[in-house]
Structure formats: C-alpha cells, structure tokens
Amino acid sequence: MSTALAHKQPANAASADVSQATAGRRFFDTTHSSWMVKVFPGEFYVTRQPDEILVTVLGSCVSACIRDPVVGVGGMNHFMLAKGRSGGWGNDLESARFGNFAMEKLINELIKAGCSRERMEIKVFGGGNVIDASTAVGSDNAEFVLRYLEAEGLRCSAEDLGGSHPRRIHYYPVTGRVVRRLLGTGETYAINREEREYADRLRQRQPAGEIHLFGDE
After folding, report:
1. Would residue 17 count as lying in a domain?
2. Distance CA 144, CA 83 (A)
3. Number of structural domains, the chain?
4. Which of 61, 65, 115, 156 is catalytic?
5. Does the active-site annotation cover 156?
C-alpha cells in the first residue's frame, strides 16, 4: 500500500504541528520562499505550516484540497481510481489510490487535527480524460468526488474538473489559495505514460481478479 504522508495525530492534535516531511518530497523553493510538498498518486498530506505549499500534477487523477480556516489546518489527497469493485465508500482495499479511501482518510485526519466538518472549505481538481483507455477514467473520478461530497453532506466551494488537459496544482492550506495551470501537449504525453506505468505497477502487486484498472484492456 502506498505510504500516506499524514501521520496519526496525538490527542492534543489541534495544537500540535501536524505536518510531516518525507525524504525527497519536500524541498525549499527560493522563488516562493516556501517549502514545496509533492503529493503523488496514492498519497495525502495534512499541515498547519504557513510556509508549506502542496503541489501535485493531475491527469485523470483527482485531488481534493480541504482546510478549516478557523484552526488553520489543511491538506490534499491524490487518487487515481474512484473506488474498489465492492462499490462501498470505505470498505474496500485500504489504499489512498482509491477515491473512497483517499477522501475518508484525508477528512478523518483533518478532524483529528482539530478541523470541523461544518467549516471545511473543499476544492477539487483533475479528472481530465488524458489517457487512451477503454473507459473514461478521468470522468469517473470527477463524478465520484462530487457524488462523495454530496453523499457526505459536504459543500464543494470550488471545482475544476474534466477536460482533456492535465493540471498542475499549487495549494496553500493556510489561506486556501489555489494556483492551477493547464499543461501542454508534451507534458500530457509524459503524464499519460506515468499514469500507465503506475497502473501497471498496481496490477503487478494485486492478486488476480481483485480490482479492474482502466477496464478490460
């Protein structure tokens, strides 16, 4: 299972430093005078640090950026597939590469850090159909995240989903600011290849018949 970047919080998490650095994924950017934290597929990250920017690149994947503006804690996830075959919100394989687990895990960790569900500011991005597959994975992911939020009674304050281009997202958890940039054709090909390679690695790690990735290819 992919490593989750947000760690279990102590009982007094609301006043604790909830960010966690991971080697090779957090670096200081002199242009922004901030720490950049890369969130890859199957991962999430929660922080209250004012000098951290969460960064991800999305093709068919989706990221939810969620924060509580009162306590100043926010986080991001990055999932590649909507859900496991059982169709439940969180009872399938416990991996943040699936949207059902990625959403529950991020929201639960934010609550542990002192966030309130009622105050959560939620923005969702990605879900572009940028890969050649027998099913529109991007559309499935985009539809899933909106259905999930509706089912959970959570309001989405901003969305940028669908289309045919990948996106680069810079999320500032303390302020809620998001900088979104659509990527060009050359970068689309690279992300297409990376997503396929990631899917192949998942296939190799899973027992036969446990999940379906991108339909029957």
Report:
1. no
2. 8
3. 1
4. 61
5. no
